[in-house]
Here is the input.
Amino acid sequence: MPFTSGVIPYSPPDRVWPVRSIKRKANDVTGYPCPSFRWRSGVERSNRICLGRRDAMVIPNSFKIQYRTNSINMNDYVSLSERVISSEQSSTVRIADKVKKLKEQGKTVFDFSAGRAFEATPKYVMEGAIQAMRSGDTHQTMAKGTTRYREACAIKLKRENNIIADPETEITASMGCKQGLTASLLAILNPGDEVIVEDPCFVSYKQTIQYLGGRYVTVPLLRENGWRWKREQLEEAITEKTKAIIMCTPHNPTGVVHTQEDLEEVAYIAQKHNIFVITDEPYERAVWNGHHHINMATLPGMKDLSITLMSLTKSFSMGGWRIGFVYANEHVSRQLEKLQQHLITCVSSFVQAGGAIAFGQDPHDEVLEYWTEWEKKVRHFTTSLNEIEGLKCYMPEGGFYAWVDISELDISSERFANQLLEEENVAVIPGASFGQVGEDYIRITCVKSWDEINRGLEHIHGFVQGL
Here is the structure.
């Protein structure tokens, strides 16, 4: 039986550690001093350590022991959540974290995994948050967000999305779209309710639904349909348990920007069956080639059935800030406020101060230059990938990603991604992470530095040639 070493903590030699008078499981071997339940006398000025067994063990000062750790089965001791145990890690975050660890070890890695732009947050937004901190704006805010932040979100919705929103009753500050999605699902789901999601879809949708006691139902986005749903597909997936549809636009990972006609197909189903549509829109400002983002709530009859998730994570390169908002009807928003009170108290005060500047003002030239540069990078990356024999991809209509068809290479997306990282130090996301429909694809983040893009392309080209 393998062992691991541990140093037993000890007290001054004129004391002894007490013996527990309570029973614990025999395999609870933790190696920590016992609290003072009762003292045992007559022990020759030695230290006593609690190993979580029925009595304590006398050992001399500074004595090192070997104690078993791998024999402990935590499921036999305290059961854990089956919902979490059975879930999968986020492949995007897992691979990005692995890259960070490799870089900490001094290795060069070309990171095209997680959707994180090369540029830092715009300086004028950072200065707003810094000024807020310096002025003492470091305390808790209202659970639904500061008045200033919510008013800025309402200004943004009117300016860019043609939506008139009441900042007092229809907008809730969130820690990005993920936390906004979690709170929104908590507000509407009962155990066993079903939520329709895309395939492929963002990696966290399915797991979040399961964590909250719901059931996800996948409806494929097919390449022959332009990665868009057809009304009859959705109709077939509806049951008496269906509570909501989640859709991402611009779409991650395929890059589709949904048109008015696309949204009308979904809106028809939502109104017919009286279900919510949750739209995840972190890429709404990253649209290319003259495409235009449309919000579901602007369609006739959809205001009360729509829950909109927006953030600054992508468009303002603010992924580390964790700031966004949920736009929903008053009844949903009231439940969101209650949930925020209990789950997070509030979004950070100075983060909201920076967010209010980003949302409340017309984008500064610094931000407009980001977006212009990103479109150039996406076009260059996808064009260059198409020149590599065995790979196929198109210029996305929106978003950060190249959705690359690797079907001609006769290799799974997981194996492709693993080998590319091991052999060429290039990190991408396997398409299977987004669903079964994504198996023949990989997702590549295009908005990195020009140097990383060009060097990474060389390594991808060499890798594909060697397959």
The first strand starts at residue 4 and ends at 7. The chain has three domains: 1-79, 89-119+365-466, 123-360.
